[in-house]
Design brief:
By secondary structure, this protein is an alpha/beta fold. Helix content is 34%, strand content 20%. It has a single domain, classed as Aldolase class I (TIM Barrel, Alpha-Beta Barrel), CATH 3.20.20. The structure holds D-xylitol-5-phosphate (DX5) and zinc ion. The site of D-xylitol-5-phosphate has 21 residues, from β2, β8 and α7.
């Protein structure tokens, strides 16, 4: 079963609660949070207080994608705020094993994120101990970018590596996923599909969520 994870980065923040409820009614499985600090990526989004408020009302698992420097300093705050999945980038993280163990010790699922320009073989070692890999299909920092076509081949290669090393690891894919390519991304091997503008740029968020969900599980 393929899981749909709307990314609230592209939501209308004035109507955030209403739009999240529409995602839930439409059949979303996970809620994805793009956390940006203006240093790791050239954009600033939101921090744990936003997750904390949403957690009180939202039945879905909250997935924190941390695009921040020194993520270890904030991981506890995100888990305390309600994140049950936390992912950190492999790029620039010299102590990825320690970071992953920290996430797991707090009771959350741990993921490692890989940018489009980073060779997949850097994941070989971490596959032994992560719960999921978040493969970026755009360069992180902004919603609404175009899916990088080579990502499909990278998903297939990652799937093959996972099959060889640790088949329980899930593949999450993030960036430029829309109704015209979501099926291809799922067929390439993605288990969790993150969609931002492909949901929130539509006037009827509930109907669009339902449509993407039905495309995923045909
Ligand atoms: C990019 C983020 C993505 C982004 C997805 O830095 O990690 O989650 O919000 O948005 P779309 O689906 O619009 O590419
Ligand atoms: Zn993301």
């Amino acid at each position: 079963m393929k899981l749909l994870a709307p990314s609230i980065l592209s939501a209308d923040f004035y109507r955030l609660g209403e739009q999240i409820e529409a995602c839930v009614r439409g059949g979303a499985d996970i809620l994805h949070f793009d956390v940006m600090d203006g240093l790791f990526v050239p954009n600033i989004s939101f921090g744990p207080v936003v997750l904390e408020s949403i957690k009180k009302h939202c039945p879905l698992p909250l997935d924190a994608h941390l695009m921040i420097v020194e993520p270890d300093r904030y991981i506890r705050d995100f888990v305390m705020a309600g994140a049950s999945m936390v992912s950190v980038h492999i790029e620039g993280n010299h102590h990825i094993h320690r970071t992953v163990e920290l996430i797991k010790s707090l009771g959350a699922k741990a993921g490692v994120v890989i940018n489009p320009g980073t060779p997949l073989h850097l994941l070989e070692e971490v596959l032994y101990y992560v719960d999921f890999v978040l493969l970026m299909s755009v360069n992180p920092g902004f919603g609404g970018q175009t899916f990088i076509p080579r990502s499909l081949e990278r998903i297939r290669q990652l799937k093959e590596m996972i099959g060889r090393i640790n088949p329980s690891v899930l593949i999450e894919v993030d960036g430029g996923i829309k109704e015209d390519n979501i099926r291809l991304v799922a067929e390439a091997g993605a288990d969790i599909l993150v969609v931002g503008s492909g949901i929130f740029s539509h006037p009827d968020v509930e109907a669009q969520t339902r449509k993407l969900k039905s495309l995923l599980n045909v």
